[in-house]
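pasting for ref
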Amino acid sequence: MPSVRKNMKKGVSTTNSGTILNNGRPSKAMPELPLDWENLDPADLKNPLLYINRELSWLEFNQRVLDQAYDDMHPLLERVKFLAIVGTNLDEFFMIRLATIIKKIVNNIDDLSQDGLTTRRQFWAIRERAEKMLNDMTQCWEKTLKPQLREKSIVFLDAADYTDQIRQFLSSYFLKEIYPVLTPLAYDPGHPFPHISNLSTSLAVVIRHQGETRFARVKITAVLPRFVRIPEQVCGISGHVFVFVEDVLKDHMQELFPGTKIEEIYLFRMIRDTDVVIQEDEADDLLQTVDESLKRVRYGEVSMLQVEQNMPDRILNILIENTRAMEGVVTRTDSRMNYGSLMQLYQLHRPQLKDTPFSPPVLFSEHNRDTLLERIKIQDLLVHHPFESFVSVENFISAAVNDPNVIVIKMTLYRIGSNSPIVDQLIQAAEAGKQVSVLVELKARFDEKNNIIWAKRLEEVGVHVVYGVMKLKTHCKLCLVIRKESDGIRRYMHIGSGNYNRGTAQIYTDTGLFTANDEIGGDVSDVFNVITGYSNKKDYKHLLVAPAGLRPGIMRMIEREILHAREGRETRIIIKANGLTDPEIIRAMYQASQAGIKIDLIVRGICCLRPGIKGISENIRVISVVGRFLEHSRIYYFLNGGQENMYIGSADLMERNLDKRVEVLCPVLDPKIMEHLKNMVLGSVLNDSVRAFVLQSNGKYERLKNLQKDGIDSQDYLLNWYAKSGNL
């Protein structure tokens, strides 16, 4: 390898924000919105100016999460948790969304987004916004959270704060706990450039060795804790005192390279494209294909390379050239990296700095488990997580497993998690001789490895395992229990919006319906036949099922509201979803607004619709609630001239949900449940004056102006309601 000092790439410049550019970015990343919305043609609902960029809208959602880290209405460690979530979210955005755009650029694919941006202009707009977010995260940590943690005796020391005793302790800690797990990797003619894995944090080390200046890389392995705690007797400070592990490594790097001279050390972090692309038409064994695809993604294109502010270009160029990083993916920082690791602080036992724990009521307890199917036979029942315990769902499955009259259990599993009591119950059912069929979606992003492990375990005990429908992800949440009773076969169902995952059920707001309705049961059986067999069923009596029936079903209900409006009948649309990106649905919403229909959209994340435009969307309000729990339930309500319709289920209003997934929306037929969902659940969110953000026509979100300490926080309101009332 040439000397590091000579390895200087020409023609590379660095902007003030640190982004590496070869050709410069466009002078204006985003088109300016017209100041006078009156100039827009109300008939031209495909005008790009009527749409918000999908990726920028997601970044605005992450900004709303970041706002929670600043909000002192949350306990301090909860605010640290929000900052960690922002970091993890942004990492995933770089791994998937930005990486997809980079792939298009690399392959010279330049298409237009629905808001009229070319691929390259999207890239620069995203990078500019993401760069600001990275800087805002740094400010949040350095200027707000870190000082406030110190006030609560959670102290972070920099190298300048070390006493001789602290240095002595860290030297001993390094030799005992860190040194044994490190592997310094040289780069020279006899040592190829080391592979730098996704999400890895490393140290670029410049050493003087045998008269030559050389480069080496030291990875900070994930087995090391991000924070090293200093005992009180060592630092003389009570409470929790930490130093960052990368600081310890820098101070003791000479131990890894004895007999050399350490000249420079710089921290850097890399994020790669991890989107698993599966050619299902060519797959003989989907499980094996997914497993092999996971191994390939470790070599994905670089989507972000974050380096220390003072890293010189000659070192940076070594990283760029050997990882094939394209222009624009480099960002510099003079602060910490990997804010997602701050989640480790949440494990501290400081309950006074966290949300007050709560004990959610249980719909089906262990004591009445034997009679729960009889309760469902009598009436439909709603469960609402995390305000009501997920144990109710687990006990529903447990009751089926232990009931000798239950002969069949069918289930879809999307994000199972690393620890799943439900899988254990299904294994128990199979071992007891029941027929168990399970759809394990191997293509569930970031859960592929867990799902492969569970699929194999289920297969080993004789469970009928399928991996999904060709070219579609199975995202619906269904559990079907078939019981042999005195009057014949009866079906019991759970149809939900959330994954069958105990962990996420404690932090995601989700709804689930228990029903024994025979016609819905017939529909659910038909869905499972589509999933497990070769059924081409498209028409269902009650369910809206994607990809064939969901889009036309929603369009019919919107168009029906428009007809009611034209004929003078009552109209109203309320939709709660996680995302709204589909242009056809957005145009239908615009048409409904133009017909005078009042529309409330509760969209947690991405929303590409622009509300409040005169003559087009002035009757549409879009709010987003970000709080203690992640809003995840989907609820669709249509007034329908007084003959109300409501659906709950797994589907968002995004192209992938409508056209590329198996999704299910189930009607709410019980008037009491519909009233509860409309007035209590949707009503509390629509009246939220604490956690609600309102989308403006320009794509920005504003907090409600009447924010008060005694305002309505919909999540707290529901927590208190369920605690006092038990269940619906």
